[in-house]
Structure formats: C-alpha cells, structure tokens
Amino acid sequence: MVDKQNAYLKTQILTARPEQLTLMLFDGAIRFGEKARKCLDEEDYEASFESLSRAEQIVMELLNSLRPENSPDICRQQAGLYLFVYSKLVEANMSHQTAALDDALRVLGVLRETWAMLMAKQQENPGEMTSPPTQDESSSAVSIEG
After folding, report:
1. What's the rounded Cα separation, in Å, for the pair 58 and 127?
2. How far apart are CA 101 and CA 80, in angstroms?
3. Helix, strand or coil for residue 135?
4. Scanning 53, 99, 101, 132, which has the fewest C-beta atoms within 10 Å of its C-beta?
5. In which domain, by residue range, is 114 found?
C-alpha cells in the first residue's frame, strides 16, 4: 500500500505545474508541523525532531525558490514570512514547546490559503498572469512524503 501511495505522490510531483508544487510544499510543511505537534504532546522528542526538521527543510526550499527579479517587494515580504516560520520551527525543535510551532503553523496556513486563492484566481482569469510571480519554476529537491 505504501509503495502505491509513494508512486502516486511521485507521479503527482512529476506532472504538477510549478504553482501546484508550491502548494504541495505548503501542505507538506503543515503536515510535518502537525505531526511534530502530536509527537511533542506525546513527549516523543526524537520523532518531533524528525518532523520539525522536515518542515524546516521545506520552508527553506520555499525561501530558496523565490525569484526577486520577478517581483522584488513581494519576494522580500515573503522571505520575511518564511524566515519567521523557519525560526519558529527551530525554536519549537529546541525548546520542545508547541507555542512556537503553533505560530509557525498559523503563518503557514495563511500562506497556503493565499497561494490557493491566487491559483484559483489564475484559473478563473488565465490571461491575466501566466503563473504566480514569486516562485521558481524548477522542481523541488525536498521530499514532501511522510
């Protein structure tokens, strides 16, 4: 069953448009963050470390995919949000407290929702823009499987 799920996810990733990959990265970071919260509640610090580390890697991939040449002001603002999220994930990882993790997940949730709304608007008005302006169109090297 796991092999079928991994094959399906791999197919999704390989066939996704760049903006869909970004949405999948948001989903992965949120999923790993929620898994880490559960592990922290159970005082399973090794598992929480693994999940938080995966979420941190995904956030860094989002940060590295920004292309300021497309929209410098928006990229600067997004970079600030990604760095805030990253620092909160690291804080949660070091302190084993869920408060910092909750802050990171709140911001990730808003970013994900905003990205999904932008994608929906793009589908409604495909002539207005070809893709969301601030993310790199190359594929991600970070695994969102978990």
Report:
1. 30
2. 17
3. strand
4. 99
5. 18-124
Nearest to 103 by CA among 79, 84, 75: 84
Give dist(CA 71, CA 47) in Å, integer: 38
Between CA 90 and CA 25 the distance in angstroms is 18
* Contact by Cβ (8 Å): 110, 78: no
The strand pairing partners of 66, in sequence order, are 135
Q: Give the residue from 11, 22, 23 showing the smallest Cα distance to 136.
A: 22
- Which residues of the chain have a pLDDT value below 70? 1-2, 4-16, 127-146
Number of domains in the chain: 1
pLDDT, position 70: 83
